[in-house]
Every structure is written in C-alpha cells, then in structure tokens.
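To fix ideas, we quote verbatim one protein's residues and fold tokens.
>
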Amino acid sequence: MWNPKEMLARAINRVSLFQLAASLLEAAGAGKPALRSLQKAIEMNPHKIDLHLQASRLYLKLGQIDQAALHCKKAASGLGPGSFIYWLNRACHGGLKGNRWEQPASCEVGPADTVPEDPAGDAITQINNSGLLLLEKGRYYEALACFQQARALGGDDPAVLFNTGLALSKLTRHREALEFYEEAQALGFCNVELLNNKGYSLFHLGYYEEALSCYEVARQFMPHDLGLLSNLASCYHVLGRADEAVACYRSAVKSCPDDATLHNNLGICLEKADKMAEALISYRQAVDLSPQNITFLLNYGHCLANLNHLEEAQEIVEKILQQEPHHHQAWGLRGEVLAKQGKMREAAECYGRALGLAG
C-alpha cells in the first residue's frame, strides 16, 4: 500500500545521508567530492537552507565566489550579492586577487608561422605572453597551443589556466573553457575578467542563473564597466527580468551615450516591459546614431507601427527598401502598416513578398 509519509521519511533520510557524506568529505579536505554529494542532496530538497549555506562555504573554499554567492542568495532571499560581496571582501582583506601576468607593451606579431616571444622571464612566462599576443591578434588556435605548451612545461599556474579558458571561449568551446576557469578559481585566482568570461561561457551553455551570479559578483567590483553591464542586461533579459535589464542598459547608456547598440537594446527591453513610448525614444536615438543600420531601423519602424504612427513607420520602411529592395522583414512591416491603414489588397501583396512568394 502506498504510504506517502514513509516515502517522505525515506527521502529526508537520503538527503541527510548525502549531507553527512558531504560534511565528512569536507572535513577530509575532499572539496570536490563533497560538493558532488551535496549537489545530490540539493536536487532532492532544493529548499533546504542549510544545504545551500554548506554549498556556499564549499564553493568559497574552492575559490568559486560566483557559485558561493548564488547559493548564499538561495539560502536567504533577502541577502543580495552586494551583502555577500561586502562580507567576502572584508574576509579576504582586499577582495579579488589580480592577474599576475602582465600584458606585454608591444602587440606586434611576427609572420603566421612564427610565435612571438617576450624577451623577459622564464620559458613558461615567455610562452604564456606569446599566447596573449596571439590572443589579442585573434589567432585563437595558435594562442591555445601556446597555453597548452606552457601547461605541459609545468605551468599549472592559475593565470595560465585562465588564459587557456579564455582561448577556448574565443573558439566557442565553452564547456571546456568552464573547466579551466573553475580550475583557476580552485587555485585562488579570481578577478573580474575571469568572472565576466566565465559568465559568458555559462550564458552560451544556457546556464543563465549561474551566469547571472558571475556578472552580479563582478559588478560589485566594476559597477560601471560597459561590457559587464551589457552582459548582465542580456542575462536579465533572457531570464524575463525586464525591469532589471532596463536598469542595466540605462547605466550602460549613461556611461556611453554614443553607442547605438546600447540604445537599441534598451529599446528592446523597454518594449518587453510594455513601455512603448520610452522604447520609441531609445530606438530613435539608435537610428540617429547609426542611420543606415537595418536592424535599428526595423525595430524603430515596428515600434512606430505598434504606436499607430503609421506615416512615420511607412517612411522608415521606404528607407530600408531603398537600401535593400528585397528585404523580407521590411516587406512584412510594410504589409503590417498597410493592413492597419485598411489597405488589405496592398498588404497581401507585401506579405507575399515577405514570404518570398512574389518577385
């Protein structure tokens, strides 16, 4: 006979066993196995506060302050990333550790079949810095080969691990990159650049909550960094947190008011938040800054049409079609405008062209 109380008791006992195993492994210094055991317990009971607190402590020991912050937030919803970082910064006497590898002053790269070398330092340093030069020049495969060579020579320095992850990220090998970022963190290397790039890889792997945690932690140290604000806003947008995405893009626009892409993205978020009049202003600013950009013009035109500014929307459509006469989305927008004007026959012709059914 089915007994829900008995099943619940068994589940609770299993959670307790996994938590106990995690505590024993942690005491033995086996941080990663302890985390695996704890993660199983969390999967069974994701609302148990002490599991998240224990996970936060373990991640902190492994140097992954982004994951520590994430579990800290889950343990206490009132404790935001700012509170966590304040405590962490005090505990660490100065916050995040900086990159010990200096960027070379010169960025000149030799012929394609040679690897530039930095004259100073030992072989591992030279190879690592050569990789940095190649990375900056967009020669990602060669840069990765340099970092792998540095590691093969005994260069398991956390900065080399981070650079390896960065090269893998550039090659869109995000899952591999993530492993190197976490190895670097486990060795005590954690700066804003690592958190931002780790967040980028997590985002592209679809781990949006984890990516958000990286960006939020990094922002505590660089609150006005343009790239970081943009990444954070994108994450909020994907998670459906439109108001927070808008706030990030507003901060980014304030820092860089001449960036048309930021104005366009702010418009998208405002539109998603049903703030159409404000979205229109942002789209107009994007178009003013980049008047030939088809994407910005289309977004502006659609917003005008949604607000029933049909004549202005028609002008935008004509401008797009002058540049690209066969642009299907522009023909679709033209059909939408004509339909709103009650010109159904002309609208049908435009929709046909949008679908590629007419010449």
About this structure: Residues 224-290 form a domain with the Serine Threonine Protein Phosphatase 5, Tetratricopeptide repeat fold (CATH 1.25.40.10). Residues 4-27 form the longest helix (24 residues). Residues 77-121 have pLDDT under 50 and may be disordered. Residues 165 and 180 are 5 Å apart (CA to CA).
